[in-house]
Amino acid sequence: MARILVGVDGSEHSKRALRWAIEEAQLRDARVTMVHAYEPARVRSPYTYSYSAMPGTLTDDLREQEREWRQQQEEQVRQHAESAAARILESVVDTPKRGQVETLVVPRDPADVLVELSRNADLLVMGSRGYGGFKGLLLGSVSQKCVSHSRCPVVILR
Fold first, then answer.
1. Range in 30-34, 120-124, 127-131, 153-157 with the lowest mean pLDDT
2. What superfamily would CATH give domain 2-157?
3. Which residues make beta-bridge pairs with 155?
4. CB neighbour list of residue 67: distance below 8 Å, 6 or more residues apart
5. Domain map of the chain by residue range?
6. Do 102 and 34 form a contact (C-beta atoms < 8 A)?
7. DSSP line for the chain
8. Which strands make up the sheet holding 30-37, listed edge to edge?
């Protein structure tokens, strides 16, 4: 069965891309994989960077606390991204059709993920611009990278 990959970030362009991908999948008897990639948590630790002046057991305890704190931050970011992906799907797809869309939430650079996944896809669909900072551009940086490096045909929707 054919596979249509669609990158979403919640922007109107990406929602249009998801709608188009679902319609195209029905015509091609293909399955749709909606990809929502996000930047991993990059939070500044509340713990000190230098443990050199502390006794070893205290240092070990602080490192363990810091590791647990980082895991909690990463989990919160992951949950937020999964929730965002679910809201995007709900805003675009009728309830009966949601089962036809596989959702993939990945903690990596969106362009890198989409290019990598394009190796096993028949078509990559995305919006021309997402939530990047330069509104006057015709294509966003993720779209440009995907057009240049994708391993399958790419459809860009405005």
1. 127-131
2. HUPs (3.40.50.620)
3. 125
4. none
5. 2-157
6. yes
7. -EEEEEE--SSHHHHHHHHHHHHHHHHHTEEEEEEEE-PPP----SS-S--TTS-HHHHHHHHHHHHHHHHHHHHHHHHHHHHHHHHHHHHHS-GGGGGGEEEEEESS-HHHHHHHHGGG-SEEEEES--S-S-TT-SS-HHHHHHHHH-SS-EEEE-
8. 101-106, 30-37, 2-7, 123-127, 154-157
pLDDT tens digit sequence for 137-148: 455 688 889 999
* C-alpha to C-alpha distance for 67 and 4, rounded to whole angstroms: 38
Lookup: tokens for 153: 């045909």
Strand partners, 125: 6, 155
Query: How does residue 53 score in pLDDT terms, banded at 50, 70 and 90?
Result: low
Type of residue at 66:
E
Confidence band, pLDDT 50/70/90 cuts, at residue 39 = confident
